[in-house]
From TrEMBL:
Annotated 3'-5' exonuclease domain residues: 354-552
Cross-referenced Pfam families: 5_3_exonuc (PF01367), 5_3_exonuc_N (PF02739), DNA_pol_A (PF00476), DNA_polI_exo1 (PF22619)
Keyword flag Metal-binding: no
InterPro entries: 3'-5'_exonuclease_dom, 5-3_exonucl_a-hlix_arch_N, 5-3_exonuclease, 5-3_exonuclease_C_sf, DNA-dir_DNA_pol_A_palm_dom, DNA/RNA_pol_sf, DNA_polI_exonuclease, DNA_polI_H3TH
Protein name, entry field: 5'-3' exonuclease domain-containing protein
Native organism: marine metagenome
Length: 662
């Protein structure tokens, strides 16, 4: 993509929600999830958008513009955007993270209460053009083509991958390529065809081809309507003559406002150096390794200590990992350090045979033997601790001591996350729902074959999310340990192996790393996973054999079989079912809080003696320090500060507007 040389300083206006949605849905099939279970797709994608804008286009000024209403279009047309799907909860929860990200980049965040971002962008673009700047609108929204003209450009950022869309710079020379009309006719064109995404009606029955012919013949929408009775095509003629007001309403709805009360404050919009320490802390929390490295402090005192609490709290069947860490650049994971293996000599047998399975044809003989034995130990491995949200990575099976198999389902390359249309380069088994894996599903769901495990409930939940109903729950070594010795310090697999069998399993931190270099279990190479998981599932089988004997010897077998084990599927179903909440109650609470906020806003405006945008730092500063005459307690480069600490201190002094705002 060729970017024209600058003729004047450039103001980049970023359509926040357009890019947030694009980032979120780019990873919809394999969302980025950090170790806390938080979906980080939108913050990750948005961070890279911001960096791309800065690195590639070097803007002089920049604003990230958010929606804050429908610009009162719903008052003109109550069904405006009525057909839009509700924003996914995971995306809605990401919005504060994106705002935090924008603050870390020291970029201006602009929103006007009650108005859509398109209208704020349109106003700022026109003001920038009139001030002698070039405005560059960053969005893929088709409505914004109407603004393209001298001094106003459009940048569609595109998306990556072999099937992706290249970035596109749109100006007067190529704006017509989108719809077949110049930018000056986009409003009329959209008014004729309507817009299903915004529920704008248009002229029923008139599609893009007919709209182009009409505008080519008559030049404008008003001329089309004035000559509607002369149009030769019966369908178009009847639609236009019968829906004149509907078409004019559609034009009103699609027209972007360019005259809102929004200041073009170039001092606030000037591109500044990012707040690197703040961004580094943010990226550490999000677990974006490559980005945290880019913004790492110049002086690093030391690596953060390992989080030992994770391995003690999380069962070995559902691995504590970081899915969002796929975007890092870790070269691999360490093997046992030579001469320092803490595993004692009696572990030799456990290394005897751990086979990696990526070919469905190899499963037949394994499953036949499992049916003959009537028992197998299993462990399920997922990308991070929460089995309700994590992706299935692998399944380990052990049939006899020193004989285990690791079935690989979801291993991915280490490095940047890949979009859903990019082909994986690692050979895995197909999804659990495929026909070729039906024998495996039959085995897992067969109640006659006993499944031995560690935290079988978590394994059952993870399998259920993959479409498998685990049946035949047998010995769960973590539960058996508790029944035998409730006072034991821990009941996780690593502790039981050390306490009962007398040797140490390979530490989890040795496999995935710690601190900033911690990776997802899905990023662990298959050979390492084969060895690690093979050892664990082998230990489960050995512990189950020993605990079964001890339970009977201590007279606890019946308690274990008839009380403890039957609870496993019950608790599994409870977790999968979840908790029902009273949505009407919470909607009522939301409405009440909204009304309370409206009353507070009205009271602030009453005290101030005029209406103003509470989200505008410039307007708030003018009200507090110029018109109300309050003392400026702290100053920034652009004037008196209005941050929370200042408002708190002013409220404590008895000033009404700061008190109401808090």
């Amino acid at each position: 993509m060729d970017v024209p040389p600058k003729n004047a300083p450039r103001l980049f206006l970023i359509d926040a929600y357009a890019l947030i949605y694009r980032a979120f849905f780019a990873f919809i099939r394999r969302p980025l999830i950090n170790s806390k279970g938080e979906n980080t797709s939108a913050p990750f994608g948005f961070a890279n958008f911001l960096l791309q804008i800065r690195d590639r286009y070097q803007p002089d000024y920049l604003a990230v513009v958010f929606d804050a209403g429908n610009s009162h279009r719903e008052k003109v047309y109550p069904d405006y955007k009525a057909t839009r799907e509700k924003m996914p909860d995971e995306l809605r929860f990401s919005l504060p993270r994106v705002r935090e990200l924008v603050a870390g980049f020291n970029d201006a965040l602009v929103e006007l209460d009650g108005y859509e971002a398109d209208d704020v962008i349109g106003t700022l673009a026109v003001k920038a053009r009139d001030a002698g700047l070039e405005a560059v609108i960053v969005s893929g929204d088709k409505d914004l083509y109407q603004l393209v003209g001298p001094g106003i450009h459009l940048l569609n950022p595109g998306r990556g991958g072999p099937a992706g869309v290249a970035p596109e710079w749109i100006d007067e020379s190529n704006a017509h390529e989108k719809f077949g009309v110049p930018a000056s006719q986009v409003i009329d064109y959209l008014a004729l065809i309507g817009d299903s995404s915004d529920n704008i009606p248009g002229a029923p029955g008139i599609g893009p081809k007919t709209a182009l012919k009409l505008l080519e013949a008559y030049g404008s929408l008003e001329e089309v309507l004035a000559h509607a009775g002369e149009i030769s095509g019966k369908r178009a003629r009847e639609s236009l003559t019968e829906n004149v007001e509907k078409v004019r309403l559609s034009k009103q709805l699609v027209t972007i406002m360019t005259d809102l009360d929004v200041d073009l404050n170039l001092e606030n919009l000037e591109v500044r150096e990012p707040d690197s320490p703040r961004l580094h802390r943010f990226f550490v929390e999000m677990e974006f390794r490559r980005l945290m490295e880019r913004f790492s402090p110049t002086e690093v005192v030391g690596e953060p200590p390992p989080d030992d609490s994770t391995s003690s709290r999380v069962s070995p069947g559902v691995m504590p990992t970081i899915d969002a860490g796929r975007e890092g650049e870790i070269k691999g994971v360490p093997e046992y350090p030579g001469g320092q293996d803490t595993v004692s000599d009696n572990l030799e047998a456990i290394h005897a045979r751990h086979e990696l399975i990526t070919d469905p044809d190899l499963l037949e003989n394994i499953l036949i033997r499992a049916r003959e034995l009537g028992r197998a130990s299993i462990l399920v491995y997922t990308s991070f601790p929460d089995p309700h949200r994590a992706a299935l990575v692998g399944l380990a099976l052990a049939l006899e001591p020193a004989e285990s198999f690791y079935l690989s389902f979801g291993h991915v390359p280490v490095g940047d996350p890949t979009l859903d249309f990019e082909s994986p380069v690692i050979n895995n088994l197909p999804d659990m729902g495929s026909n070729v894996l039906q024998p495996l599903l039959d085995f897992l769901e067969d109640p006659k074959i006993e499944k031995v495990g560690a935290d079988l409930k978590a394994s059952a939940v993870a399998l259920a999310r993959a479409g498998v109903k685990l049946a035949g729950v047998g010995v769960d070594v973590t539960i058996a340990s508790y029944v035998l010795d409730p006072g034991r310090r821990k009941h996780d697999l690593e502790t039981l192996c050390q306490d009962v069998l007398g040797f140490s399993l390979r530490p989890y931190s040795d496999v995935v790393g710690v601190g900033q270099k911690k990776i997802s279990f899905s990023e662990v190479d298959q050979e390492t996973a084969r060895s690690y998981c093979g050892q664990q599932v082998d230990v489960v089988l050995r512990l189950a054999e020993r605990f079964s004997v001890e339970l009977e010897a201590q007279g606890l077998g019946r308690l274990f079989r008839e009380l403890e084990l039957p609870l496993v599927p019950v608790l599994t179903r409870m977790e999968l079912e979840g908790i029902r909440i009273d949505t009407d109650f919470f909607e009522t609470m939301n409405d009440r809080l909204g009304q309370d906020l409206t009353l507070i806003r009205q009271e602030i405006h009453k005290v101030a003696g005029e209406e103003f945008n509470l989200n505008s730092t410039q307007q708030l500063r003018e009200i507090l320090f110029e018109k109300q005459g309050l003392p400026a307690l702290k100053r920034t480069k652009t004037g008196p500060s209005t941050d929370s600490s200042v408002l708190e201190e002013l409220a404590a002094e008895g000033h009404e507007i700061p008190r109401l705002m808090l």
